[in-house]
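The protein record quoted in full:
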Amino acid sequence: MAPLSLFTVALGLPAPWEVVDVAFDPQSGRIDFHRAFAPGTRCSCPQCGAEHPPVHDTLERDWRHLNCFQFQASIHAKVPRVRCGTCAKTILPGRGALGVPQQRLQPTDGDLTGHPL
């Protein structure tokens, strides 16, 4: 198994999410996982549930994950924003849509609960 695929499985990321890069710095005791979703990915509107509104842009977000071995672990991702044709909201999917159980994550740059931006 390729190392990036191994981390995708170990973090429990569902499709279309995958780990695309890992930066490991043993001197600072830190490991950073960078994840992405496939271009053209569509997701349900977290506000009204409409199926498959297109992703119209992304926002860079960071989360503190549970430690990986003895190293501080962080996850970085460009999170999709959807523009829903049904409810006319522009929103981020909630944290549960990010593919990692919420109890493993702590946002470091703002909350991602699906509020309109």
